[in-house]
Amino acid sequence: RPRPGSPGQASSTAGAGSNPLETVPADWFTSGTLLPNLALTWLHRWDHASIEHGYRHKCFLRKLRVASACSGSASEAHVMDGWASALRERFGHDVLFEHVFVCELKPQKRAFLKVMLKESDFCIFGDIRLLTEGQAACDRHGKTCIVRGFDILLTGFSCTNLSKQNHKTLDKRTILSRRDLNATTAQTFFANLALCEKYQP
Length: 201
What we know:
Blueprint: E1 11-13, E2 21-23, H1 27-30, H2 34-43, H3 48-56, E3 64-68, H4 76-91, E4 97-103, H5 107-116, E5 123-125, E6 135-138, E7 143-146, E8 152-154, H6 184-199
Parallel strand pairs: 3-4, 3-8, 4-5
Antiparallel strand pairs: 1-2, 6-7
Helix pairs in contact: 2-4
């Protein structure tokens, strides 16, 4: 929806009894600057003292390693560019991100990622439940690769068992107690927890 303003000045509207809605200028979409501008907008809401503390104590001297699971289209690769640009503009410092792996169960999506992110060299894994073994089959390199550690994990879990579009939806009140193969929501949820437990991002 078109509106006047600039990054960092996003307006919010909220109707009675409704969730707040964010509006952004239409030209953010047409100019291809949506993600960088959103990153800059959100940056103005962060705890600036903590960020300045990180710079002052040289916490950002090395690259921050980023991994994603249940990756889909891996849009986080573009979001990281937005973060870096926003931090540079706001604080005048560079923060470098290194994408270490993506993980996507569906083969056709992994093939898409391999094509769309062909300039990158990070691993493309399949089943998140196998990553805690420390190595896994990698579509990018065509071999078994080491699962590298990471500082930031961007992830989600399967919504199959909770989706109203799925006529086999399981009882959401007990879904996390299920451990059978049909309970993909619980399996991917606990796989994420195990991944964080092992690599301590």
